[in-house]
User: Which sequence fits this backbone?
């Protein structure tokens, strides 16, 4: 190998290592917490336990009531986390909330929408932070 080939090989190795390292960093697994101030000025806290393995995202959300709900329709692609939760609401009606957000290290910034209909459907921002172990 001449000097130019050695240099090109070294640059390629460094670039590959940087790409591999950045892919490893973007893993949504962990415990995530956030709070929200509702319309009546009540602050509620929620948490989310995510697991990402073999290209599949799963987990549970703990609601302000401390009830745990399995997430559904979960995905993680291009640093975007998406999932749905469903729970039984008033009059035994199923309430669905859809969450999505962009993962950036130990933060997710995104939005949610819910079909509560009481008093109206809800939408908002969602910015959980990953908790350190």
Assistant:
């Amino acid at each position: 190998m001449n000097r130019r080939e050695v240099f090109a090989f070294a640059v390629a190795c460094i670039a590959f290592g940087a790409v591999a390292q950045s892919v490893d960093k973007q893993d949504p697994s962990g415990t995530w917490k956030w709070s929200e101030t509702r319309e009546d000025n009540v602050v509620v806290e929620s948490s989310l336990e995510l697991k990402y393995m073999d290209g599949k995202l799963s987990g549970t959300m703990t609601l302000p009531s401390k009830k745990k709900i399995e997430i559904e329709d979960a995905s993680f692609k291009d640093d975007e986390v998406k999932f749905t939760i469903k729970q039984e609401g008033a009059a035994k009606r199923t309430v669905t909330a859809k969450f999505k957000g962009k993962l950036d290290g130990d933060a997710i910034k995104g939005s949610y929408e819910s079909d509560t209909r009481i008093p109206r459907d809800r939408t908002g921002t969602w910015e959980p932070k990953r908790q350190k172990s």
The two ends are 47 Å apart (CA to CA).
